[in-house]
Amino acid sequence: MALEDLLAARTVWRAGRGGAIQHAGEASGHAALDALLPTAGWPRKALTELLLPAAGIGEITLLLPALARMTAAGGRVALVAPPYIPYAPAWQGGGIDLAQLDVIQAEPRDALWAFEQCLRSGAFAAVLGWPQTADERALRRLQVAADSGHCCGFALRDARHAVNASPAALRLEYRSQTGAWHVRKCRGAQVPSQPLRLVH
Fold this sequence. Notes:
Layout: H1 3-8, H2 31-36, E1 46-52, H3 59-72, E2 77-80, H4 88-93, E3 101-104, H5 108-121, E4 126-129, H6 136-149, E5 152-158, E6 170-175, E7 180-186
Parallel strand pairs: 1-5, 1-6, 2-3, 2-4, 4-5
Antiparallel strand pairs: 6-7
Helix pairs in contact: 5-6
């Protein structure tokens, strides 16, 4: 294929012209966040990492608007080995169609495999997983699986992993000291410097 054909197909990144966005984003339901991201929302066919100082700091609330829209449109959402039993009334109150929500219990040694299989299956619009022992290679498999399965993957992980390299298309870290989300990586654009405080 000639260079001109590659450029026309928007598969080659050109320095100084921004990255080629191959997949439009899934609106997050937070206008300030969508304005920061090159896909104008959660990247589709990709893995997003949410790096957390502790569970329960608002990470599910961050995701609920998009997940609610997906389930309302008939898309299925999977929770793979969540650390706590999901409280159904809260999910329903957040707009989730519970008939479209699958909770998959798995032992820690099997959870990563189950997460990958759900992402790859093509049966889900979004898959949330809590991988405890995923290294860069495992995350790359998750990223490839999300691409193959045409879904939004969300890996909710401890903030200590923020210093490690990751193939995820998007990485957001919540910092308790600022009370805000910080974009650590976003494929297709420079990382925004300003923190993001979302009103829930």
